[in-house]
């Protein structure tokens, strides 16, 4: 089994009415519930857009060799993460299937990335 990140950038969502978004929530939660039932769910969640805190930590942003932590996204950011799910599945095909299901439920594109294997500890 391998863990995969299924994610979208907020800019991919597009402009839609509140009613449209309200209709998508139950569809997306249905897919998340299916992930749980299939035993592949690790985590899923959307990120705060305007009300939540956003910080940037830049190890190269301070002349005194410390890490500079500032409010707001990293200055060079043109896109930002809107939400994601992590699934633990046997192969790429299964990860793509779950990405297709959540993309269809949400109504916007998602990307799929496999995590590198975790190093063995102990």
UniProtKB/TrEMBL annotation:
InterPro entries: Dimeric_a/b-barrel, YCII. Pfam families: YCII (PF03795). Residues 38-102 form the YCII-related domain. Belongs to the YciI family. This is YciI family protein.
């Amino acid at each position: 089994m391998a863990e995969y990140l299924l994610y979208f950038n907020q800019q991919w969502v597009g402009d839609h009415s509140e009613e449209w978004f309200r209709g998508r929530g139950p569809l997306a939660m249905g897919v998340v519930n299916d992930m749980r039932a299939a035993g592949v769910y690790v985590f899923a969640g959307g990120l705060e857009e305007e009300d939540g805190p956003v910080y940037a930590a830049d190890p190269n942003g301070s002349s005194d060799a410390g890490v500079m932590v500032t409010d707001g996204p990293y200055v060079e950011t043109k896109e930002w993460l809107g939400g994601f799910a992590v699934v633990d599945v046997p192969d790429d095909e299964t990860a793509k299937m779950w990405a297709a299901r959540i993309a269809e439920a949400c109504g916007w594109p998602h990307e799929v990335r496999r995590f590198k294997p975790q190093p063995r500890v102990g």
